[in-house]
Amino acid sequence: MREWINTIPNDGIIRFTTVFNQERLILTSPEALSDALVTHNYDWDKPEQMKKGLGRIVGQGVLLASGNVHKTQRKCLLPAFSFRHIKTLYPIFWEKSCEMVEAITKATANADNTNAETSISITDWLRRATLDIIGLAGFGQDFDALGKPHSELSNIYEKVFDQPQNENVMKAIETLENIFPVAWLGSLPLQHNRDVKKASMAIRQAARMVICSQEQFKTETTSSILSGNSLLSIASRSGYFTEDNLIDQVMTFLAAGHETPLVGHWWSYADNPLSRRDCGMRSDLNYPLQVKAHRSSILDSLPYLHAVCNEVLRFYPPVPLTRRVCVRDTTIQGERVPKGTNILIVPAALNVSKKLWGEDALEFNPDRWMGSGKNNGGTSSNFANMTFLHGPRSCIGASFAKAEFACLLASIVGRLKFKFSDPDYKSEVSSAGVTARLKHELLLTVEVVEGW
């Protein structure tokens, strides 16, 4: 679709048909996107197949809620994701980032002692770090995935949230969803379905125990950040959510908070040139890792770091495509759109549209974010950057994801240098699942930066 948006003439909408001649509309202009995401936002909803499929795991949290229920849930959760509150979470982001880098450094030293080539799976380390971060920031519990990578909780989590990576299987499932109800597919006696159901119940039970013992956590934890300041604590103080509602929000935090910000990191190392970008970011960093540089003011004053983060999120949006279905007759760009119409919002294509970004839209270029007046990357419309969507259903955790990304990337490039273990490695995107992933494991050879 990246090719379509730049080669097919259109006035804001590209129409095509899929299997069984089902119509799809791709929105390509700021005007069309504004109509669907802002002006007539609640005329559109996630497809029932998606809601039932994801609902098996995350329940009916803010991600899947509709209409007035969504409005109320989002209103009650907004304080937990406010700009001011995210600033208070920087110590968690930074300290877990440093813990990850220290663990990688020790693993490197151990490998050197045995005269082994030091290759690490950066995706594995980042997965563990972000799981720990969402545990602490989300509901005040350290999962210690960095210290205990094969703990029972980590294993259960992977069974629930790690999506299948076989593209043929995923395409077959998507085709079957157009014929059979998702609930029926989910009840098939498959090992994957059994594993997901069992593991999901285990995580929900753990979340219930955390909620029930909230007061105990407040008195026993050593830091207020880990107790009364977690996303769960703030949500519970709203007084709106029942215990089951809170568990649904916990599952949503885990699904989105652990997976979504992770994907951009994969490509920040899978895309050459590594050395220039790392050196540019490293020159921003004038303090050693041992310094607890967790104050947001320090990390927010690193222009090239944030330029790279912004460009990674633009060029490689974690969720490359999202689908909406019209729940009542509405309009887009003044044209009538009947109930039941399906639209596709494709950040992976919109974010590289030459109409919106200029002729260099398909180039990975952090410099587009550098300099006065470049906070938007040089584009003239907010709807040119659709990584976190816009409007009432935009990603509520966007600020959380961006801050976490900056801390992880700063800690990594400040202490470590990388090169590809396979010099011929090329990134290929898997089309399996909701979030974008690399088809092949990204193995990197590590070198510790002297002086840090």
Automatic annotation (TrEMBL):
Entry's Gene Ontology molecular function annotations: heme binding; iron ion binding; monooxygenase activity; oxidoreductase activity, acting on paired donors, with incorporation or reduction of molecular oxygen
InterPro entries per UniProt: Cyt_P450 (IPR001128), Cyt_P450_B (IPR002397), Cyt_P450_sf (IPR036396), Cytochrome_P450_monoxygenase (IPR050121)
Any one Pfam family match given in the protein's UniProt record, by short name: p450
Highest taxon of source: Eukaryota
Matches recorded under PANTHER family: CYTOCHROME P450, P450, PUTATIVE (EUROFUNG)-RELATED
Annotated family: Belongs to the cytochrome P450 family.
Protein's name in the database: Cytochrome P450
